[in-house]
Specification:
alpha+beta; Extracellular Endonuclease, Chain A; 7-stranded antiparallel sheet; two-stranded antiparallel ribbon; 5 helices; about 25% strand; globular; binds manganese (II) ion
Length: about 280
């Protein structure tokens, strides 16, 4: 009796281990938000200040009151059913020497509080979604850029995820002066927030897997766009496709710096011509 009980216990235990292991194999891992590199070698400089949160990593520019760039991983591992929190708020984790941009700094400016890491890319938990609403993740973005061109590309990124891919996305901006719904402006909030002139994004598309940076090859799909921060923008993001090299020339950054130089040389020189929706 005791022997057969032991045997039953043994089989239940082994069976349970088998089931939990095979479950694990189907899980898409969350990648390191900074896996492709730190484009500006951000550190402690107030113009190039490195910030890493669980949900994204960035270089923050305290003089501009915006990030220089934000980098994040997107896969099904980040997506769930958490509702859009809409809790725009100052990032109180910024050094006290910085002006902590508030939602009111954008009020009446004619520019949207434009997410870098989008709300809809972080829906696994309420905490994750809420983190995208910190003002340190925002730029003054022309409404037609944000709500049309940019939204279309963000939606396409999530479509790529639904098709079995995982993405590394780096978004940034440069220059000064944009045209929102209330006309041309160079700064908001009495100069505390700079309105960027151009807004760019680089997307590395990989089939779901592990060791992501090691799987980037010279034929990996890389989408790069560089758009005007203007309300007269074309709604089609594909209009603005460019090379990573061109963005690097404009910004002085080394995007995808963790990818071997010989591979960067190829993937950064070509303009994407893949599907756009
Ligand atoms: Mn947006
Ligand atoms: Mn590069």
């Amino acid at each position: 009796m005791l022997k057969s009980l032991k045997r039953v216990t043994y089989f239940v235990l082994v069976g349970w281990m088998f089931v939990s292991c095979s479950k694990e194999e189907g899980v898409v891992p969350k990648g390191d938000n900074l896996a492709m590199g730190n484009p500006s070698e951000a550190g402690t400089d107030f113009a190039n200040y490195f910030i890493e949160k669980a949900q994204y990593a960035m270089s923050y520019n305290s003089y501009r009151g915006t990030p220089n760039w934000v980098s994040w991983h997107l896969s099904s591992a980040w997506l769930g059913s958490a509702a859009r929190q809409d809790d725009f708020r100052a990032d109180n984790s910024l050094p006290t020497a910085f002006h902590r941009v508030t939602p009111a700094d954008y009020t009446g400016s004619g520019f949207d509080r434009g997410h870098n890491a989008p709300s809809a890319d972080r829906t696994l938990t309420i905490t994750d979604n809420s983190a995208t609403f910190l003002m340190s993740n925002m730029i003054p973005q022309a409404p037609n850029n944000n709500q049309q061109t940019w939204a279309n590309l963000e939606n396409y990124c999530r479509k790529l995820v639904s098709q079995g891919n995982e993405l590394y996305i780096i978004m940034g901006q440069y220059g000064k002066g944009g045209t929102g719904s209330a006309g041309y402006k160079e700064t908001l909030a009495g100069g505390k927030v700079t309105v960027p002139n151009r807004i760019w994004k680089v997307i590395v598309v990989l089939p779901v897997g592990t060791n992501d940076v090691g799987r980037v090859t010279s034929s990996t799909r890389v989408i790069a766009i560089d758009t005007p921060n203007s309300n007269s923008i074309n709604t089609s993001w594909a209009t603005y496709r460019t090379t990573v090299d061109a963005i690097e020339a404009k910004t002085g950054y080394d995007v995808l710096s963790n990818v071997p130089a010989s591979i960067q040389k190829v993937i950064e020189a070509s303009v994407d011509n893949g599907p756009t929706s």
